[in-house]
Amino acid sequence: MASDETSGKDLTAADSSSVEHVTAAVGTAVVARDAVANPGFPPHRPRITDLDPRAEKRAERTVYTLFYLSIVGSIFAIAAYIIFPIVPEDPGSVRLNNLFIGIGLALALLALGIGAVHWGKALMHDEEGVDERHPVRGSDETRARAVEIFQEANTESGIGRRAVIRNSLIGALVVFPLPAVVLFRGLAPMDQDPVALLKQTMWEKGTRLALDPSGAPIKASDVTLGSSFAVIPEGLMDLEHGRLEEKAKAVVILVRMKPEDLIETPERASWSYDGIVAYSKICTHVGCPVGLYEQQTHHLLCPCHQSQFNVADQAKVIFGPAKRALPQLPIAVDSEGYLIAQSDFLEPVGPSFWERQ
Amino acid sequence: MSTTTDMKPAESKKSGGFTGAAANYIDERTSISTAVKELGRKIFPDHWSFLLGEVALYSFVIILLSGSFLTFFFQASMAEVHYEGSYVPLKGVEMSVAMASSLDISFDVRGGLLMRQVHHWAALLFVASIGLHMLRIYFTGAFRKPRELNWVIGFVLFILAMAEGFTGYSLPDDLLSGNGLRIIDGMVKGIPVVGTWISFLLFGGEFPGTDIVGRLYSLHILLLPAIIVALIALHLLFVVVHKHTQYPGAGRTDTNVVGYPVLPVYAAKAGGFFFIVFGVVMLMASFFTINPIWNYGPYDPSPVSAGTQPDWYIGFADGALRLIPPGLEWVGLGGTWSFNILIPLVGLGMFIGVVLLYPFLEAWITGDKREHHILDRPRNAPTRTAIGAAGVTFYAGLWAAASSDIIATHFSVTMEGVIHTLQAVVILGPFIAYFITKRVCLALQKKDREIVLHGYESGRIVRLPGGEYIEVHQPVDEYERWKLVSYTNYKPLELTPNAQGKVSPVQRVRAGLSRWFFEDRIAPVGTKELEESHGDHH
Lengths: 357, 538
Prior knowledge:
The complex is a heterodimer of chains A (357) and B (538). Chain A has 357 residues and is α+β, with helices and mostly antiparallel strands. Chain A has helices at 19-22, 48-51, 53-83, 91-123, 140-157, 163-175, 178-183, 194-198, 243-250; strands spanning 29-30, 129-132, 209-211, 228-233, 252-256, 276-280, 292-294, 299-301, 308-310, 316-319, 331-333, 339-341. In chain A, α3 runs antiparallel to α4. In chain B, 44% of the residues are buried. In chain B, the strands form four sheets. In chain B, strands 1-4 form a two-stranded antiparallel ribbon. Chain B has three domains: 2-39, no CATH class; 48-173 and 213-246 and 264-294, Cytochrome Bc1 Complex, Chain C; 376-538, no CATH class. Chain B is mainly α and 538 residues long. Chain B is globular, with a radius of gyration of 29 Å. Chain A: Belongs to the Rieske iron-sulfur protein family.
């Protein structure tokens, strides 16, 4: 390997047009005839540690001091592990444990690293070396031999000649991964249809509206004017399986405002109760929970991508990337005064999907 | 680093001794002397910007070390348990085993929180340093022949690093990571025809299901790291094959490489730098909290905390989702078309596609088939630099949009105003950045010319006999001058008819692009001009 160290001066300048590179096309590059010549390496400038023995001694001291300091850091980290244990139920002890083990390790690592770099920069031989570059492409002989090898392999195997063998091999290689594709169908349950699942939620006629997360049913009379809270179907918390899946579709935001503030279409006039309206809490953009309700303007804001919905006006989109209004859950009151659903949502909730309509 | 053998080479050579015997033992079984002979004195050029790739490599090593520690404690299960660990506020709360084991790592394993934070900080640094490394490669033209394929490998590594980040971020199954998955689910469902089924298969049924953490875990700790390790090996192998690029400087050419040998200087500096990077990550992990999942609580589809942010490298995608104008969703042709999701997806896909293909595009435009090992100073490739600045502006606009709510609350401006401003930044900003950058590059090139021809300002003011004041200019020495005059200049492609006397449309496109790239150009100073300017240093 050419690692011929040159002191710099003996390198002939301007060999950018040397033999190896002259064959390649220059494209639209301008090859100037009167280009300034490469002056060769500048004279080497010694460091202070090369000239002053005291500076050299000092650098040496710095390096080994740093390495010793690193040892101190490592030992400190081990000691900190023992001295600062984690005391159950005391978050402060976690902080101290984290801090002191970390400081010890950081000291160990930084001192080691800085010491090594300083050694390299201040004390090690600092004359630059020069390697020659060779074109990345193989030499003509190498390339000729490579072609020859392929030709020999072709002749000896007959892969070019025996077309039927070759083609059937390619066919077999193409087909053999296909079973793996089929196997991935098992990633989701075989007996479920995602479209059907997305189009229904836990709500049905008569399901009581319950507080999230306690699951306590809500009386219409307990909903104060101007309030808003998250609501789940009663019984959701008692589900054995699929609680989060059901909740991810069924969660609703309940808002009470003055009945005269509500803008309602005739067909939806019966979906609210005395100024109480219920809308899906799942954003119609990409499905974040639409959490932030502004009482004065009746606007709902999605904290993820800032879609805004006007709860007073059928939760229509007034700003942001979402297109569709939040689906409304038709509600009523049962004989005991509890809020109930009149039915499931009349359209799929959450983000759009291909088969939605 | 074996300090003992480094410090006493003479002694071990003389006696042979244990070192000699050990070296002989190994060499007779591995032929390692060949590797030492080939690589031991290999030259690496020095520059601070070459450290960016090293930071990426070292943070990956730190991630592997800290991540291995975490796997011994983390349990990738979404089975529900009641938390019974040390963190009092969450005691008795129902959560997944994944979340509970993440809390145990943080609160019940000594040094566990430290390792979690080292892992997360190093991951953030990993993606950041890859990004900066790519910018360095781009702006210095290091992607030119013969390194185009290594650019592609590095690009794939960047994508994989983000994938690793996202899969890892999702594992603790806390409120924030669950919301991140919710957004992914919503985006996947927006893909026409197949989206619903992809989501269904990905989550093993309905969102969120009980499978996703386990699946992401095997991607995160097995498949993705294996690919990354393989590609890093290939990436570095190519660095060895190509030998490192170098900045222009006196004595440096396209046929040599000037710098320090691997043994000992480069080994000491690069090895030491690994520990410095590790040390800095350790300091961050000791002093700064990252991803405090105990504040967020377990995933629940209902609550969400305002002002939450994804990890920084996901920001540009999240920002794109925020900036899309309203109302872009229609029903037709048999399904629902969610352009409010498709445009960000396809737009970002095209953006990174351009990043991937840029080296090939530029190579086609210039038609330059030579190997380039001397880096460009960014000013000497004004159009490329300007395109880069435009890309950075586009990315930065999207990235800032991921914090639109934070910007609005911190600066007391309206959310709508922030969104509309950033929409303008993303659309118009790249053009403005392009024109400003290009003009700045050309102006800097002119300045370089002036320095070469008329010298630099010495700061010495002289009054002439006539009363005129002038500043004396000093000529630059030949070594400094070389840096200013040694760059490749390209001219626009001239259209020439082929044998049939026709100009193909492809050539027309190439000529058009070539004109765009090289119409405005400043030629390097030649010897003739230099001669003529002599005595002009007044």
